[in-house]
């Protein structure tokens, strides 16, 4: 008996629905949606024993450890400039000469002032001798009652005035001599010598240019002398990290101009005062300058082991010669603040916090007043990790130590070998509770889905 058109259409629709249901069932089974285990799907890892090195990373620029700015003490025109940028100079070498005409004239004027003051002093000495003789003569006559008391008093007064005039003349000579010394010093400062040996790292002036002396204002920066064989990098370290750094900590220095090389470093100076950017705004950043001496070039170990990546030791001591480093080059520094060996560690994302006044590990009960009125108590936040035991989440309070980029040290709470929950992030940070059913996500799930998306 032939099927009617309506019956055939109905069969086609039913077959299509059956195929769709089978497809949904297959996909759901593959994703675990229809599994008998209805617990929260989580990602896990093992608590292992490993070495951890705490690293503080910061960026900055290369500069010489010793660099002297040369500015003139006197103003004038540069009439001699025998050096150029990049020249190596030794201590005491002539760097520049400023036109001395004006300062020579000042010296001559001061010399004339000294001569005049000395001549006046000689005249005052002669006046004193004459006044003293007259005073003694008048004294003898007064003792014989040959002159009146007023005449004797006048002679004595004239003698005292002569002594005071001589004393003033002597001070005038001293003042004139001081002005002469100052004029000679100003003249000597027209010739500028190198205060140390090094390289002219920066030259800001040209022959014939006029410069301003530091005795008048800030002065003109003529040049800089640096010891380029002793270089350092100054980096800005955040206030939260600078407390972990100490003088003498080793570091790995990465210079942008030499991407294939890593340099050894040593922390030599930590600033006591901060550099504050965008002060008073929401974007305020507080950093502390830290200076790291660049010692040499090394190749850091990058080996791996079957148990996972091996944390590199602090920078090894084998060094090579430094390549040319120029002031101003950019770089990044990894400062190794502390290293611990063979400690229990878990991935950083496994550690979270819970309020123990609201959530407590299995077997522990909250205080009675908390159950009656939870809002009366303050938060009791503690660090915890969640383990997987018998298909359920177990909350364990832990104490932590230092951390590197991937793992954090567990100083108390775990013995090693436990299966800890590391994801998803929302589950670890908020959702998980003690005793909650969980199921471990198959390790091949994520790569397969990623391949599907691609």
TrEMBL record:
Limits of the Multidrug resistance protein MdtA-like barrel-sandwich hybrid domain: 68-213
YknX-like beta-barrel domain ranges (all copies): 231-296
Listed Pfam families: Beta-barrel_YknX (PF25990), BSH_RND (PF25917), HH_MFP_RND (PF25876), YknX_C (PF25989)
Cross-referenced InterPro entries: Beta-barrel_YknX, MdtA-like_BSH, MdtA-like_HH, RND_pump_MFP, YknX-like_C
Span of domain Multidrug resistance protein MdtA-like alpha-helical hairpin: 115-181
Coiled-coil region: 159-186
Key words, A-Z: Coiled coil
Highest rank taxon of the organism: Bacteria
Molecular-function GO term, any one: efflux transmembrane transporter activity
Gene Ontology CC annotations of this record: efflux pump complex
Domain YknX-like C-terminal permuted SH3-like, chain residue ranges per copy: 375-429
Protein family according to the UniProt entry: Belongs to the membrane fusion protein (MFP) (TC 8.A.1) family.
NCBIfam families named in the record: RND_mfp (TIGR01730)
PANTHER family: MULTIDRUG RESISTANCE PROTEIN MDTA, SLR1207 PROTEIN
Protein name per its UniProtKB record: Efflux RND transporter periplasmic adaptor subunit
């Amino acid at each position: 008996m032939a099927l009617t058109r309506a019956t055939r259409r109905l069969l086609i629709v039913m077959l299509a629905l059956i195929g769709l249901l089978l497809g949904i069932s297959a996909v759901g089974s593959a994703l675990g949606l229809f599994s008998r285990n209805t617990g929260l799907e989580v990602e896990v890892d093992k608590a292992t024993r490993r070495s951890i090195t705490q690293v503080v990373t910061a960026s900055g620029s290369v500069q010489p450890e010793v660099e002297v700015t040369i500015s003139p003490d006197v103003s004038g025109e540069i009439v001699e400039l025998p050096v150029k940028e990049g020249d190596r100079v030794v201590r005491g070498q002539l760097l520049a000469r400023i036109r001395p005409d004006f300062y020579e004239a000042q010296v001559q004027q001061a010399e004339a002032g000294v001569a005049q003051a000395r001549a006046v002093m000689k005249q005052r000495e002669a006046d004193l001798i004459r006044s003293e003789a007259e005073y003694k003569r008048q004294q003898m006559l007064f003792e014989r009652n040959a002159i009146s008391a007023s005449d004797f008093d006048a002679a004595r007064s004239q003698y005292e005035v002569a002594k005071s005039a001589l004393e003033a003349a002597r001070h005038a000579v001293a003042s004139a001599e001081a002005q002469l010394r100052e004029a000679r010093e100003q003249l000597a400062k027209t010739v500028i010598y190198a205060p140390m040996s090094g390289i002219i790292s920066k030259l800001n002036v040209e022959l014939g240019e006029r410069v301003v002396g530091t005795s008048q204002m800030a002065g003109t920066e003529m040049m800089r002398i640096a010891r380029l064989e002793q270089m350092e990098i100054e980096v800005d370290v955040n206030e939260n990290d600078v407390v972990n750094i100490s003088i003498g900590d080793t570091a790995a220095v990465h210079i942008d101009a030499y991407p294939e090389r890593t340099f050894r470093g040593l922390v030599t100076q930590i600033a006591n005062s901060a550099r504050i950017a965008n002060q008073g705004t929401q974007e305020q950043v507080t950093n502390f300058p830290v200076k790291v001496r660049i010692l040499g070039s090394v190749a850091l170990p990058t080996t791996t082991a079957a148990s996972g990546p091996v944390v590199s030791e602090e920078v090894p001591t084998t060094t090579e010669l430094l390549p040319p480093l120029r002031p101003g080059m950019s770089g990044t520094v990894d400062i190794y603040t502390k290293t611990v060996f063979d400690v229990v560690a878990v991935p950083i994302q496994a550690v979270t916090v819970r309020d123990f006044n609201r959530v407590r590990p299995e077997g522990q009960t909250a205080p009675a007043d908390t159950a009656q009125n939870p809002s009366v108590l303050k938060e009791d936040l503690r660090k915890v990790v969640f383990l997987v035991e018998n298909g359920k989440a177990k909350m364990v309070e832990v104490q932590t130590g230092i951390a590197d980029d991937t793992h954090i040290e567990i100083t108390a709470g775990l013995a090693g070998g436990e299966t800890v929950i590391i994801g998803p992030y929302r589950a670890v940070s908020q959702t998980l509770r003690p005793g909650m059913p969980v199921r471990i996500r198959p390790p091949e799930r994520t790569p397969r889905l990623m391949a599907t998306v691609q």
